């Protein structure tokens, strides 16, 4: 899956993944991460999610990563924020108040560029990537955030019934990617009404990933 695939989807407004409401699992479970007041939350592959507005309302700082500049222009518009835009090589940084979004390929981000991260919120990021990229993504994500704790939302269904995003990411796969650096806690498994693009059954799995002490 190429970056062009996503850029085209944004150009064509083909964004069925975008939720009109704040994700209920964020509202319900983010507090379990015990992120400090005014902590900084990294939202990888963020699109223009309304979850960013929720995080800002809770007084968190937010740093995001997104390929599509169209998405980020729409995000700042929806928040009624005027961005200061700075170019860093292949990346652009959109900033206003407590919000900073890196526009470009997440794999071009470094620990220094991202800065301090107290927690990660992954909804629609790991599951957006094909298996061949997911190992690279999880290794990169943990590297650039120093294994910051995560709230991770995945979906699980029979991948042989369809190809494409959102991909099914099993509990075993989450364990394989992350058990070296995190203690994994599966906090919710919930049936997805009407399945994933016609494939049923499908379940949403919600994980808390706590940083290992060692
Ligand atoms: C399934 S959408 C999820 C968006 C958002 N997390 C949400 O919940 O609405 C995946 C997003 O990742 C972005 N994306 C895909 N590959 C990327 C990459 N390599 N670097 C940064 N963003 C990427 C896409 O443009 C798209 O907006």
TrEMBL record:
UniProt-recorded name of the protein: Thiopurine S-methyltransferase
Annotated transmembrane regions: none
Keywords on record: Cytoplasm, Methyltransferase, S-adenosyl-L-methionine, Transferase
Organism phylogeny: Bacteria, Pseudomonadati, Pseudomonadota, Gammaproteobacteria, Alteromonadales
One Pfam short name: TPMT
Catalytic function, reaction form: S-adenosyl-L-methionine + a thiopurine = S-adenosyl-L-homocysteine + a thiopurine S-methylether
Record EC number: 2.1.1.67
Coiled-coil zones: none
PROSITE patterns referenced in this protein's UniProt entry, alphabetically: SAM_MT_TPMT
Family as reported in the entry's similarity comment: Belongs to the class I-like SAM-binding methyltransferase superfamily. TPMT family.
Binding, S-adenosyl-L-methionine: 10, 45, 66, 123
